[in-house]
Amino acid sequence: MTPEQITLVQQSFSKVAPISEAAAVLFYDRLFEVAPSVRAMFPEDMTEQRKKLMGMLAAVVSGLSNLDSMLPAASVLAKRHVAYGAKAEHYPVVGATLLWTLEKGLGEAWTPDVAKAWTDAYGVLSGFMISEAYGAQAQAAE
């Protein structure tokens, strides 16, 4: 990611943060609509889960300026997701849902450059997390 893309992600997220609760509801409603099979991985009461999502996004967005400092926590999170039943094929669905949610939340501020910056940010992070979660499993099996 370029420094300009990092700035775009951080600036656009600052516009979503004030509506974080609504954004999280929108995200999970959409996720369960497009991937109903993942609903079973989540608690019935999604209140805390929605807070965790927005907290994690805030941490990731602020950490983009120093990616190396964020990667150990992302590794732990990726491995924890495996225990919840997450699979590598879930990551693209989650990414598409996140981008859809951001587009809805940002409205006219969702420009092609902002979309590309978020797509690249999610690609970097999800690629790392998939490698950490499923690479570790593959090594353990050998």
How large, in whole angstroms, is the Cα Rg?
Answer: 15 Å
Number of helices: 6
Provide mean pLDDT, rounded. 90
Biggest pleated-sheet summary:
none
Question: Which CATH-level-2 architecture?
Answer: Orthogonal Bundle
Classify the secondary structure makeup into a structural class. mainly alpha
What is the 3D shape? Answer: globular
CATH superfamily: Globins
CATH class: Mainly Alpha
What is the succession of H and E elements? HHHHHH
- Beta fraction: under 5%
Number of individual domains: 1
CATH topology: Globin-like
Q: Cα distance, first to last residue?
A: 34 Å
Q: Which consecutive residue ranges, at least 5 long each, have pLDDT under 50? A: 136-142
Helix amount? over 70%
Number of strands: 0
Walk me through this protein's architecture:
The protein is mostly helical. The protein has a single domain, classed as Orthogonal Bundle (Globin-like), CATH 1.10.490.10. It is built from six helices and no strands. Helix 1 crosses helix 6 and helix 2 crosses helix 5. It is globular.
Any descriptors?
FAD binding; Globin/Proto; mainly alpha; disordered C terminus; 6 helices; 0% strand; Globin; 142 residues; metal-binding; receptor
SSE inventory with pairings:
Layout lengths: L2 H14 L3 H15 L12 H17 L3 H18 L5 H17 L5 H30 L1
Helix pairs in contact: 1-6, 2-3, 2-5, 4-6, 5-6
